[in-house]
C-alpha cells in the first residue's frame, strides 16, 4: 500500500514534469491551474517522519528545480498584477485583485503579532530583502500594523522596483515612508545597522548555500539586538520554498518558529542578533519541565503560543519560543 508521503512525492513529481515542460510560466489559465494544484497538493500536514532532507539525490534535484520554477512563476504573476494595478488612479484600493492577497493579509498579521510579542517597542525603520514588483508585505504592514515605520525595500531587479514604486507613488503617506533600493543585499553593509528589523523573503537564496551566505552577511552587518524575520517552509510545503532551520541562523538567538497549517504557506522564524557579551543558553535535557525546558527545547512565554494559534483555522505548530 502506498503511504501518504509516497503519494505526495509521486503527485509532486507528476506536476513537476508538467510544469517543467511549459513553454512559458507567464500567468494564464493552464499555468495557474497547474500551480494551484501543486500548492493544494503540498499544503496538507505530513507525518513527523517526513523529512525533506531524507529524499534521494534525484528527488532533491527535482525539488531544487521546482522551487526555481515556482520562484519564476511567482515573479511573473506579481509583475503582471503590479502592471495591472498601476493602471488605476489609486492602485492601493484594488490590491484585492491579486489572487493571493488574503494570504498576504494573514501572513503579515502573523508576522506583526510575532514581532510585537518579542519587540514591545515597534521599529522605526525596517528592511525587506527581496521585495519584488508587488511588495504586498511592506504595504500591508505599513498601512495596517506599522503606520509610523519607514520601509526600505531591497531588490536586484530595477524593473521590479520601478513597478513597485509606482504603486505607492500616489499615496502621500507611503511615498515618504517607503524607499526602494536596487542592489544586491550582499553589497549592503553599514546601512544594515540602521534597521531594527530585517525581513528576508522566502525566495532570496533559493539554494541552501545561497541562503546561508545571505544569513551570514546579515548577521555580520545587522545591529546587535536587531531582529531577523525569516520565511521558511515545513513538511510538503518544502517542495515550494527553501527551508531555513534553526541551526542555519548562526549568530542569532532563535525566538520563535511557527508553522501555519492553513492556506498561509510560509513558516515564520524570528531571531535576534546576539550581542557579543550574550551568555550561551544551556539546554540540559527533558527533565526540566517546570523550568520551561521540554524535550531539549526551550519554551518560554507560552501565552504567545496560545495567541498565535488563533491565526490558523486548524491550529499551527510552535517549535520554539524564547525570550
UniProtKB/TrEMBL annotation:
GO terms for biological process: nicotianamine biosynthetic process. It catalyses: 3 S-adenosyl-L-methionine = nicotianamine + 3 S-methyl-5'-thioadenosine + 3 H(+). Its EC number is 2.5.1.43. Keywords: S-adenosyl-L-methionine, Transferase. Pfam families: NAS. InterPro entries: Nicotian_synth, SAM-dependent_MTases_sf. GO terms for molecular function: nicotianamine synthase activity. This is Nicotianamine synthase. The lineage of its organism: Eukaryota, Viridiplantae, Streptophyta, Embryophyta, Tracheophyta.
Amino acid at each position: 500500500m502506498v503511504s501518504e508521503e509516497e503519494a505526495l512525492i509521486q503527485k509532486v513529481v507528476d506536476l513537476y514534469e508538467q510544469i517543467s515542460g511549459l513553454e512559458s510560466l507567464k500567468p494564464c489559465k493552464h499555468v495557474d491551474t497547474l500551480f494551484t494544484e501543486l500548492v493544494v497538493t503540498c499544503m496538507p500536514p505530513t507525518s513527523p517522519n517526513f523529512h525533506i532532507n531524507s529524499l534521494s539525490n534525484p528527488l532533491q534535484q527535482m525539488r531544487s528545480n521546482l522551487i526555481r520554477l515556482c520562484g519564476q512563476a511567482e515573479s511573473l504573476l506579481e509583475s503582471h498584477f503590479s502592471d495591472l494595478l498601476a493602471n488605476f488612479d489609486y492602485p492601493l484600493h484594488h490590491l484585492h485583485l491579486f489572487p493571493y492577497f488574503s494570504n498576504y493579509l494573514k501572513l503579515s498579521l502573523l508576522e506583526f503579532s510575532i514581532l510585537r510579542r518579542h519587540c514591545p517597542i515597534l521599529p522605526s525603520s525596517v528592511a525587506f530583502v527581496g521585495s519584488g514588483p508587488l511588495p504586498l508585505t511592506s504595504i500591508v504592514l505599513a498601512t495596517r500594523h506599522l503606520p509610523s515605520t519607514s520601509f526600505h525595500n531591497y531588490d536586484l531587479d530595477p524593473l521590479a522596483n520601478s513597478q513597485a514604486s509606482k504603486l505607492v507613488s500616489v499615496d502621500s503617506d507611503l511615498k515618504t515612508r517607503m524607499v526602494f533600493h536596487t542592489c544586491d543585499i550582499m553589497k549592503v553593509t553599514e546601512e544594515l545597522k540602521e534597521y531594527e528589523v530585517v525581513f528576508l523573503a522566502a525566495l532570496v537564496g533559493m539554494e541552501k548555500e545561497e541562503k546561508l551566505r545571505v544569513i551570514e552577511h546579515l548577521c555580520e552587518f545587522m545591529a546587535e539586538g536587531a531582529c531577523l524575520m525569516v520565511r521558511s517552509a515545513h513538511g510538503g510545503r518544502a517542495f515550494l520554498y527553501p527551508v531555513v532551520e534553526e541551526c542555519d541562523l548562526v549568530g542569532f538567538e532563535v525566538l520563535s518558529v511557527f508553522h501555519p497549517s492553513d492556506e498561509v504557506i510560509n513558516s515564520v522564524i524570528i531571531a535576534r542578533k546576539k550581542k557579543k557579551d550574550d551568555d550561551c543558553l544551556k539546554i540540559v535535557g527533558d527533565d526540566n519541565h517546570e523550568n520551561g525546558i521540554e524535550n531539549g527545547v526551550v519554551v518560554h512565554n507560552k501565552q504567545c503560543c496560545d495567541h498565535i494559534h488563533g491565526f490558523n483555522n486548524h491550529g499551527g505548530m510552535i517549535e520554539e519560543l524564547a525570550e
